[in-house]
Every structure is written in structure tokens, then in C-alpha cells.
Amino acid sequence: MATAPVHVFPRWVQSLLLVGAVLARIATVAAAPADTTPADAWRELAAGNAREARALFLRARTSQPAALRETQMGEAVALLNLQPVTTRNRDAARRLCAEVAAASPADAWNVYARYLLGRIAEIHSNPSDLAGAAGHYEWVFTRHPDSEWGQTALVKYAIVQLQATVTAEETARRYQRLVELEPRLAEPSARRDFHLVLAAACFQHGFGREAALRHLLIAEAAGVKQPIRAATVQIQIAELSRELGHLPQARAYYERFLAEAGEGDTRALLVKERLATLPAGAKP
């Protein structure tokens, strides 16, 4: 199967699908022209109007048959956002995604359909189908590793693999396989999130403080943007470094925390106490 291009559809559309970015509403169903485009429907969906967006995707499917797969995927996303949430809408969204995923020739919409099938199995099903989600995510990152969907799917794969209720031995085996997949992470935000997931697994399942510290250092280097999370990662790195005897590194991260989080963070007093216990020679 041919590798799907990364930017077949606009980056702002991809951003909408990944993080739910909110754009200004510029169209209404009542005033929609006969030549309604998928872009009109995406903007309506971005404004939080799932019902109106679905109607526009259906209208665009009639006026622009060449955009069939895009309008099918748009309708699927709209169905998943309709309130109230119903099994009927979820199943309809799944059928649309399955049809697009199986279509030929392959394009970026096929890849996104597979990714969304994973999301439906993971978060829109009750109970969650973590094994099914893992299968879809693995398909995406195995066949399209360098695409944005492939990078994101690898992070989601790590989450569902480590969330599953399995034996301790199986969890450890899954963790080791995820470690082997690290080289596939080229995109910084995906690398950051992947290593934060693995660091959490180290804490939860006892995979070792050295391993947890390694993951946190990689995640921090990739760029943790959210201030509260960044401060937490800095403290975790500092604490693990202190416990493991990496004292210059511990001091460096304690001082970074104080410089960036400041006195307003309730953990500042603890950090100052930790710094006071470090030997004078523990300079970065």
C-alpha cells in the first residue's frame, strides 16, 4: 500500500481532528449555497456545531462527489460529537470509517479512518476495546510511520498497551517492546508524549528509577510546553537524580524549577529544602 502524503488536507483540518481547535463559525445550514464545500462543514464542526456540520458534509457529498471520502470522514467525526451520545451514532461513525479505510486508492483519508477506528474502540466504546484499538493504531504507525497520524498512533498504542488489564509479566513484555519502538518517534511532541507515558509506566509498574529518569529526560528535551506539567517533570527529574546520586543534575533541575515556576508554586518550599541538603560540590 502506498504511503499516504502527510499534507493531503490542510494542516488546520488536521489540527482540528487532533486537538479540537476552535475556529470562528462562518456558515449556517440554512444559508448554505448549493456548492457547499467540505471546508464549510469543517468550519462548522470546529465551531462546535456537530449537527449542522453533518448536514453540510451530506450536502457537500452531493455537490462535490470527488470529495466522497473526506465528507464520509467529516460525517463520522460529526456523529461522534453529536449530543446526546448514542450507540447508533457511534456505530454509524464506525461504518463510515470502515468503508473509507477499505477504499482504494489509498490516501491520507484512509489512514485517518484507521486512526479514528482506533479512537472509537478506545474511547467511544463501552466497555473500551483496547485490543481492537491497539490493532488499528499498530496498522497506522507500521504502514505510515512518518505521517502525523503514524506518529500520534504510536503514542496512543503505548497508552492502550499499558492500560490493558494483563499479567505483570505481559505488561513488562509490552513495555520492553515499546522501548524498542522508540527510534520511530521523529516528531518532537509525539516523542515527548510517548516518553511521558513510559515514565508513568515505570512508576506504576516498578520498571526502575533509572528507566523512569531516562524517559523523563527525553520528554523534557523534546519540549514540555504546559507550565504546570513542565514544573512537575522538572521536580520528578530532580528527585530521581538526587535519589540515584546524580547530584549536579538534581541541583540543575531544582534550580530550573525555582527559576521557571517561581515562589507561586506550592512545591517551591520543598525544592528549597532539597537544595539545602545537597552537598556544596554538587554543582551542575
The H/E string reads: HHHHHHHHHHHHHH
Give me the count of strands. Answer: 0
The best one-word shape is elongated
Proportion in β-strands: under 5%
Structure class: mainly alpha
**Average pLDDT figure:** 88
Task: Detail the poorly predicted runs.
Answer: 1-31
Indicate the percent of residues in helices. 55-70%
Count of helix runs? 14
Biggest sheet overview: none
Rg from Cα: 23 Å
End-to-end C-alpha gap: 50 Å
Textual characterization of the structure:
It is a single chain. With 284 residues, the chain is an all-alpha fold. Helices cover 69% and strands 0% of the residues. The chain is built from 14 helices and no strands. The radius of gyration is 23 Å and the shape is elongated. Residues 1-31 have low confidence and may be disordered.
List the helices and strands and how they pair.
Blueprint (H helix, E strand, L loop, with lengths): L10 H9 L18 H9 L3 H14 L4 H14 L5 H16 L5 H17 L5 H14 L4 H16 L4 H13 L7 H18 L3 H15 L3 H17 L3 H15 L6 H10 L7
Helix pairs in contact: 2-3, 2-4, 3-4, 4-5, 4-6, 5-6, 6-7, 6-8, 7-8, 8-10, 10-11, 11-12, 12-13, 13-14
